[in-house]
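EI: anyone free to look at a 428-residue chain?
SC: sure, send it
EI:
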Amino acid sequence: MDNEMCPYHLQQLKQNPSLLTEAANFTSVSSQYHLVTSQTLDEIARGINKVAGTKLSFEGTHQYMRDIQVFKQLNVDAYSKSGVFKNAKTAKSYLDNATQGQLDTLTKKLNGTGQEIDWLRWKNGQFRNLIEKSKLLGEEMTNAPGVDGITLNRFNGKTISRTTIKAAESKKGLGTNVNDILKALKNRTLNPTDTVAGIEGTDEALHKALTRNIEKAIKNGDIDYASKLKEAQAQLKIQELNHTESVKQSTNRLKDKIMKGQGHSTVTLQEVSKKACQGAVIGAAVGLTVSSVTHYLKYKNGEISEKEAFQEVGQDTLKGALVGGAIATVSVFLPGGILGFIAGIAVGMYINKTLTNLLDEVFGKGAYAEILHASGYVYGMTISLKDSIKRFEKDEIKIQTNENKSKVKSRKTNQNLNEFELLMKGKI
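SC: here you go
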């Protein structure tokens, strides 16, 4: 079963190519979920440490990837016209020459955008992400007043919920958030049935404010507004993420990165190389296999449950997972776009030779690549972790025994990385 697919499933793919995209989404979500809810990363890191004599750790990965997402969002939303966050250099230049007013605005944008990314990562990390997908409206420059993010049904594209996202560094800021929410309700830019994602304390503060304003509206004879506030008090969903201190710490860290010229809005091979030298596990690339596609089709056909498919695919894809650290330059091949970050792990899709041959037969040579590209996936041929470690071990031995050969190999590696990066840019 691992390397063969039944004729019925093959025919299904042929008749409906979108099933390949669905299988890729299912594989990506289930494998990422497994990565962050198991000890798989720790086990792989220990394996690399043992062979390479390094001290890799999973710590720092979440923050590294999350901060890149924040800078990217600033580039496509708040500072899209000025291009301040086009790259780390322009971001540093802006901060170095900013007026006090610009610094104050930047602080607010870092607070809010950091909270937006945390909301997006939290939503994408839920099990329901199998049938839902969430996005920030600023990504497409279609932000509606009062609404920052939406959650859609993956299969029919219909909106499930709209969310306004708020952050604050102090209790005063929390009060401002609550007042903004009340204004949005009054101006009808926020519906009583929408969702508010705020910091810790938002639920209590908002409901107290709603009670006060309901009484005030009734007293003033504004029955329509009072009814709207009552509806909001009963139906408005509140999600609390972070607290004042964590928001402040996040913004200070982001400012420090900008100041040091590290405000990167994309994952670059140069940055990955630096992180690899520091011993951080950066990301992972999971394999889309015959088995994972088959399990998804069985689930789609009602032959197995969603839970069974989720577990099987999650475990199966990680057998061939590539995880960063010493081999980060191999596993992190992602462009600047988001391919489904969950808890800060950037996961791409690798395809082994067996599935490549099978898909060539189904769709025609190379056609499956266009299907995956159209869905936002970048793919490559699978290299097993075991083989990668063996190769790395051989390289280490050569480096220790022959310094000249090491220099030659290093130059060749840099050349390959440069060529690879150029290739990546050409595909973005």
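EI: The CA atoms of residues 169 and 248 lie 5 Å apart.
SC: 👍
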